[in-house]
Design goal:
Layout lengths: L7 H14 L6 H10 L6 H22 L6 E3 L4 E3 L6 H9 L10 H11 L17 E10 L2 E8 L4 E5 L4 E4 L3 E8 L8 H8 L8
Antiparallel strand pairs: 1-2, 3-4, 4-7, 5-6
């Protein structure tokens, strides 16, 4: 008899691995679903839970990125928004105020991060520059494409919600992230920039 216990940490690791390897196109959900169903480490109930999680991410992507669905009026920014528990415009405006303090040291990377942030669809799907000294417990996972893939703990963690009272983003504490180590970056083409762009609605999921 199959246990009903859900190993959420394992689900998170599996989904993070999928997010690191999958292409974010119109086949994202179906491809992700197939990868989850093929994952032998998950029980049937855990696969159902994992599929539901990537489905929720996909629905956010479709609704806000494609600008479809019922809108509501945000009294804070005076714009019509698609999100219900937050306003995507307020989040983008808040991020824009921090553009002057980007510290990657690379204009192309800073520009990419800013463009991704201006396409933010959810408070828990925001691309940021993470200084390496904010990472710990770096662990090798696998290799895919032009890069080696690692997991790490992000000290302080990602943004995970919008505080409507204080009108600012809040962080959820230390969390797991996926790292890609690019080889021969000086001679590499710009395909990896485009790849990062695909991640913007899903970055640091879970």
């Amino acid at each position: 008899m199959e246990t009903t216990n859900i190993r959420r940490e394992l689900i998170r690791k599996v989904i993070n691995k999928i997010f690191a390897l999958i292409n974010y196109d119109d086949k994202y959900f179906e491809n992700g679903k197939q990868m989850i169903n093929a994952e032998e480490s998950l029980t049937r109930n855990e696969k159902i839970e994992a599929i539901e999680q990537i489905k929720n991410s996909f629905e956010k992507y479709i609704k806000i990125r494609s600008n479809t669905g019922e809108k509501r009026f945000c009294e804070n920014c005076q714009q019509d928004c698609l999100a219900i528990s937050y306003c995507e415009h307020c989040i983008r405006n808040h991020l824009k105020t921090k553009f002057s303090i980007c510290e990657s040291g690379n204009d192309d990377i800073d520009d990419l991060i800013q463009k991704c942030q201006m396409g933010t669809i959810s408070p828990d799907k925001i691309i940021e520059w993470i200084p390496y000294n904010h990472l710990e417990n770096v662990e090798y996972l696998t290799e895919g494409g032009c890069s080696k893939i690692y997991s790490a703990d992000w000290i302080g963690g990602r943004y995970n919600k919008w505080d409507d009272k204080e009108k600012q983003l809040k962080r959820g504490g230390t969390c797991k992230v996926i790292l890609k180590s690019l080889e021969n970056i000086k001679s590499a083409n710009r395909n990896w920039y485009e790849e990062v762009g695909y991640f913007k609605p899903f970055f640091l999921n879970m």
